[in-house]
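Help! Submission page says 'invalid entity' but I think these are all valid:
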Amino acid sequence: MKINDTLKLIKQKIRQQGEYNVAIPKHNIKLNQNETPYDCSNNLKLKILRELENNSWNRYPELKANNLIKKIAKILSCNSNQIVLGKGSNEVIQSIITSIISVNDKVCVLNPTFPIYKMITNQNDGVIIESKLNRDFKINEKDLLQKASKAKITILCNPNSPTGSLVSLDIIEKILRNINGFLVIDEAYVDFSKFTSLPLLSKNSNLIITRTFSKAFGLAGFRLGYAVMHSKVASEIQKCMLPFNIDKPSIIAGNIILSDYKKIIENSDKIINEREKLISRINELNDFKAYKSNANFFLLKSKISPQEIYTKLLKNGILVRDVSNYYLCKNKIRISIGSQEENEALFNILSELT
Ligand SMILES: Cc1ncc(COP(=O)(O)O)c(C=O)c1O
């Protein structure tokens, strides 16, 4: 068979989809993917390696990572049967959408927001309806409520990426009163906002909250995320996960990382502190506006083009994210908060540009 005929066998939706791409050119300071700058200690790494060494590699991992799930449930003050684990929160979001969305079902999302929701909805033949943020990155409440009421799932990234903006509990409660579908709240950046919708779970069986080990927890190199929801919904969503999806290294690393939860909170607080300092210093520079953020990144706007800023930073070894193709972000770049030294280096290069 000729390759063109072979490719025609692949769903048109998939062939039309662009590849997910994150450019990673050579750099010294990585501020493009909202990871934490704090790697876990050598001590913890050795513990993880030792436990991995003592485990049999020829055997499957646990079907359900019970200890890890128990630890997460304890932190969230919920029951273990409310938690679904995934290979990163991406996989959890995928199984939520896959288990709920059929052909032409609507999924309501903000614009701009994390692009994966749209990608997975399209792959499941669902239809995305977008509620555009205002210029100040606030939601248009009336529009969002109206669109959410038509959707089978509404997904709110809270704090939102790439804007760092936050939707209040008040509005989330209003959405819940207005919808007949699910509300999924992606709390990937919750540790940097200290604001969670968890208290709404007990009264709303249609609410699902997703979280990740990739940001504040510092385990992006392993793939671990989870969602918390009503236990009966969790049993259904779990069915869309492939058996043995979480590998032994991730289960072990997750367990060990949580043994020092205090450190995670401490590091998140350091990042919040750094964020506030950095944003206010940048705002003292001519030609730059750093937007307020509730996450571990912020948007930077300037008269200087995003491409010029990106290139100048990269020449100096600093990699940031060009988000200028996102709605409302034409003249902006997204910068993750690094360590104190990294933020200082970033600030110095930006100062040279003014
Ligand atoms: C808002 C948001 N949700 C989810 C994810 C996925 O994270 P992971 O699959 O690493 O848990 C990301 C990653 O950047 C994100 O920004």
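Support: the input was valid. A stray whitespace character was the problem, and the output above is from the cleaned input. The two ends are 58 Å apart (CA to CA).
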